[in-house]
Amino acid sequence: MRFLSLLTMVIVVAAAPAGAQVVRDKNGSFFDIAARRDALKAATAPRVRAAIEALAPCSAQAPPTPPQGRMLVPMYYLEGNHGPVNPAFAPAEAPYAAMERAVATAATRHVATGDRSEAECVLRMLGAWSDVGALLDYARKESAQAWFTVEWAAGSAALALSVARTAPALDEARLGSVAAWLVKVAEYQLSQVSRTPTDTTNRNNHAYWRGLMATSVGVVARNDALFRLGLQTFADAVGELDEQGAWPLEMARHERALHYQSFALGPLILIAELASRQGIDLYALQARGRSIHDAVRFLVGAIADPSIVARYTPEAQYLEYLKPGSGEHAWAEFYARRYPQASAWALLSAPLFNRRLGGGATVYAAPLH
Questions:
Q1: Is 358 domain-assigned?
Q2: Helix count (H) and strand count (E) of the chain?
Q3: Which entry of 27, 101, 118, 284 is 20 to 30 Å from 156 by CA?
Q4: The pTM is what?
C-alpha cells in the first residue's frame, strides 16, 4: 500500500486502540447539536444573527420533488476538467441541488430554533426520495456527472439527517428506512469506483466527496464499513499532499487550481468533524510529515500570494469563490473554531452556508459574540 494504513496512522497519532474505528454514536452528527442550540440563545455576533435570519422555514418552501427516470447529468465543463461551464449542467442538476438546499436549510433551522417541525421536515423530504428509490437509476459509464451528483446528494442528505435525527420522538421506523436507503445509495455509488491506477477520481476531490458520503452515511446508519472507508479516504488524502501542502491533482486544474484546493478541503474537514464526534482525531493524523493543516496553510498563503500557485500553473486564478458569503469556504468555520489562531480566519467575513457541507456552517460553528 502506498501510504500507511488508516489503522496504523490512527493508532500512532491519536492513540486509538485497535478496533476503535467504529461508529459509537449514531446521533453524534458532526458537532454537539444540543450544546450549540443552547449557546445560540445568547448569540450576539452579527454574522451569526444574520445567518439565522436568512433561513426560511421549511413550511414556506416547496418540497424538492425527486426526479423521475434515468439520471443523466451533462458534464460540468464543456471540455476537460476546467474552462467554460456547460450551460446544460445547471438545469439537469437543479432537482438534486434543490433537495440538498432544502434539507440543509431545515436542519440548520432545527439547530437554530429548536423547532421540531424542521427536523420532521428533513425526514419527510428524504422519505419521499427514499420511497421512490432516488439516486439509484444511473450508471457511471453512461453519465459520469450523475455519479458525481450522487456523492454530493447522498452526503448532503446524510449530514442533514444526522442533525434532524436528534429531535425527540421522530418516527424511528422512518428514520431506519431512510438510513437504509442511504446505505444502498452509497454502496451502489461506491461499487462503480474504478480500480484503474490512472483514474484520477480515485485520488482527487471526488474521492474525498465520496469519503464524506461514506462517513456521514456510516454514522447515521451505524455502518462501520462505510465509516472506515471514509476515514481511510482522509488518510489517503493527507498522503497525497506534496511538500508545499498542495494536492497535485487539484493544482492540475489550471485557472481553477486554488478553487479545487478549497473544494477538496471541504469534505475532508467534515470527515474530521464526524470522526471527532466518534472519538477519533484525524486532525492529528500525519503522512510523510504532512497533515491537513498543511493543506489549509497552502490555500490561505496562495490566496494572499499568487506567486505560490504560479509554481504549479501559469494561469490567473478563478476568484469568484472568494466573494464574501460564498459557501466555498464553509469548512473554515469548523476549522477556525478548533484552531483560533489559524490563518483560515482570513476566509471568514460573512455568513457561510454550503448545502453539501451540512448547511449553515456559521450557525453551527462561528463565534457567538
A1: yes
A2: 15, 0
A3: 284
A4: 0.95
| Angle between helix 224-240 and helix 257-277 axes, rounded to 10 deg | 140
312-368 pLDDT tens trace: 999 999 988 888 888 999 999 999 999 987 777 778 889 999 999 999 999 999 999
Q: How far is the C-alpha of 81 from the C-alpha of 75, rounded, in Å?
A: 9
Residue 224 in any domain: the answer is: yes
Q: Decide if pLDDT at 15 tops 60.
A: no
Q: How many CB atoms lie within 10 A of CB 1?
A: 8
Residue 100 lies in a domain: yes
Q: What is the rounded CA–CA span in Å between residue 307 and residue 297?
A: 15
8 Å CB contact between 66 and 134: yes
CA dist 107 and 29 (Å) reads 11
Give the range of the structural domain holding residue 346, as residue numbers without chain letter. 6-365
For 242-261, how does the pLDDT look when each residue is reduced to its tens digit (9 = 90+)? 999 999 999 999 999 999 99
Q: Are the C-beta atoms of residues 122 and 162 closer than 8 Å to each other?
A: no
User: Domain holding 228: CATH number?
Assistant: 1.50.10.100
User: Does residue 1 lie in a domain region?
Assistant: no
Angle at 142 between CA 141 and CA 144, to 5 degrees: 70
Domain total of the chain? 1
C-alpha–C-alpha distance, residues 235 and 355, integer Å: 25
Distances (CA, A) of 20 to 10, 16, 40, 156, 208: 9, 6, 33, 26, 22
Cα distances from 238 to residues 5, 124, 231, 287, 330, in angstroms, run 12, 37, 11, 6, 20
3-state secondary structure of 261: helix
Report the C-alpha gap between 287 and 3 in whole angstroms. Answer: 7
Read off the DSSP letter of residue 103: H
Distance (Å, whole) CA 171 – CA 271: 27
* 353's grid cell: 452556508
- Alpha-carbon distance of 325 to 193, in angstroms, equals 34
